Amino acid sequence: MMLEKTIGILGGGQLGKMTALAAQNWDVPLQFLDKSKDFPAGKVCPYFIEGSFQSYDDVLAFGRECDIITIEIESVNTEALHVLEKEGKTVHPAPAILDIIKDKGLQKKFYAEHDIPTSPFELTGAKDDILKRITEGKITFPFVQKARSGGYDGKGVAVIKTKEDLHKLLDADSVIEELVDIKKELGVIVARNPSGETAVYPTVEMVFSEEANLVEYLISPATITEEEERKARELAITVIENFKVSGLLAVEMFLTHDGEVMVNEVAPRPHNSGHHTIDACVTSQYEQLIRAVSDAPLGSTEMTSSAIMLNLLGEPGHTGKAFYEGFEDCIALPGVKIHIYGKEITKPFRKMGHITIVDDNPKTLREKARFVKENLKVITKDK
Ligand code: ADP
User: Fold this and answer.
1) Whether the predicted model's global pTM rises above the 0.85 cut
2) I need a surface site. Which of 139, 145, 258, 378 has the fewest CB within 10 A?
3) From the CB of residue 381, how many other CB atoms can be counted at a distance below 10 Å?
4) Of 68, 63, 30, the residue nearest 295 (C-alpha)
């Protein structure tokens, strides 16, 4: 019976907090492992073990006290997860799959071996090896270099258009990919339970700000054709079925100018691109995770409203106790849902919260997003 099984989550950040909030509706026993009870999940879940999810001993001891173990971050100790699995614990995603996904090189090989569309690539050693291959004519400009492990939020990625960009090369074992002619960047969250049931959410589109060259906001459903939407959802299901991941898979995709949809990378956990599901879908990605790892029926992924999601990042130039300027002006607008993670200290660009705006009118939806973007700021008062 699902409500009697303790779910252990490695990582206690904001994704953990939002999972704990979803689990509380059903009083599902949940516990977390992360460095400090002061982290976001510790604020809403009293069962919080202080330790490191990268430590073999800590993960093993933590997992032995749980029935089901899952993650909210990939960089966990998978060696301990393999042992827990052998000892009969339920671990989602399976540690062997997590080992593949954690390494961008193995991940790309997996796509190639399973005929999953992805950009052409080759695996290389570090900087010297890449330079040598360029001299030999085996790698040609332009290309994208990705460190095989350790990168996140675009760190660990270098776009090399000409030889003038070579100073940007990272010194790490890498995946070298062809530069894709991207029309849109899409994300699809898909869930699967161990019985093999799958449920896919409507596609999310990352909208970039031209000046800042940063994701400005996420919008769902994406502004793409029905055919492109169908392709994206089908691809997400193909990917999760090939990996046989139980739990969630966030599939990041590129839509090309030729109308092709290909996989960029995946994350086997709740994801930033699914935050809006709390306020804009019948079942949030967090509730879906609980259902999926418990092998329970999956919930409806239908949208109750169109939505825009904005990350609330620490304002540049402000480090210290966080203060949320403009909060009341923003919640005064209908459909503006602010989520504050509860991190005491703000730093430039630190993810401090997010805002989902729900509104079925495309014009007012965007207007409210612009208002929130201009008026809600995470600052320090005592600067
Ligand atoms: P991270 O895991 O750090 O988020 P990604 O693989 O998502 O790294 O790459 C970050 C960004 O770099 C993508 O969102 C996309 O804008 C760009 N990018 C990545 N791979 C390619 C590619 N092959 N061609 C063109 N742009 C790419």
Assistant:
1) yes
2) 258
3) 10
4) 68
Q: State which ligand 1 atom lies nearest to the alpha carbon of 119.
A: 23
Instruction: Supply the pLDDT for residue 204.
Output: 98
pLDDT-flagged residues of the chain (< 50): none
**Ligand 1 pocket check for 154: Cβ under 6 Å:** yes
The reported pLDDT for the residue numbered 151 is 74
The candidate with the shortest Cα–Cα distance to 11, out of 52, 46, 43, is 52
Q: What are phi and psi of 183, to 5 degrees?
A: -90, -45
What tokens were used for 294?
């418990």
CATH topology of domain 2-91: Rossmann fold (3.40.50)
125 lines ligand 1 (CB under 6 A): no
> Which of 261, 282, 285, 377 shows the shortest CA–CA distance to 322?
377
Residue nearest to atom 18 of ligand 1 (CA): 144
**Distance, CA 337 to ligand 1 centroid (Å)?**
29
What distance in angstroms lies between residue 176's CA and the mean position of ligand 1's atoms? 11
Give the residue from 7, 20, 151 showing the smallest Cα distance to 74: 151
Strands lying side by side in the sheet with 121-124: 121-124, 174-178, 143-147, 157-160
Can you give the pLDDT at residue 383? 55
Q: Any idea where the domains of the chain sit in the sequence?
A: 2-91, 120-178, 182-380
What is the pLDDT at residue 144?
97
Class of domain 182-380: alpha beta
Determine whether the shortest distance from the Cβ of 19 to ligand 1 is under 6 A: no
pLDDT in tens, 195-253: 999 999 999 999 987 766 678 899 999 999 999 999 999 999 999 999 999 999 999 99
Pairing of strands 7-10, 30-34: parallel
320 lines ligand 1 (CB under 6 A): no
Ligand 1 center–CA 71 separation, angstroms: 23
Any ligand 1 atom below 6 A from CB of 241: no
